[in-house]
Automatic annotation (TrEMBL):
Annotated Gene Ontology cellular component terms: cytoplasm
Record GO biological process: division septum assembly; FtsZ-dependent cytokinesis
Protein origin, superkingdom: Bacteria
Protein name: Cell division protein ZapB
Gene3D superfamilies for the chain: 1.20.5.340
Key words of the record: Cell cycle, Cell division, Coiled coil, Septation
Length: 64
């Protein structure tokens, strides 16, 4: 293997490792964002269910 080919291979390996590190960082950020969005959705669901139960109690008391 010539020195030039070896240098090209080394550069490709270095570039690939760098790309993988960047992807890992992005993945970590996206996981954090996803967790935050899940928490927000759960809070909205909890609040919506609370409102719906209030409407149900109004319907029940109106029917009586």
């Amino acid at each position: 293997m010539s020195l030039e080919l070896f240098n090209q291979l080394e550069q490709k390996v270095t570039d690939t490792v760098d790309a993988l590190e960047m992807m890992k960082l992005e993945n970590e950020e996206l996981r954090g964002e996803n967790a935050k969005l899940k928490e927000e959705r759960e809070e909205w669901e909890r609040r919506l269910n609370s409102l719906l139960s209030k409407f149900d109690s109004l319907d029940t008391s109106s029917a009586s």
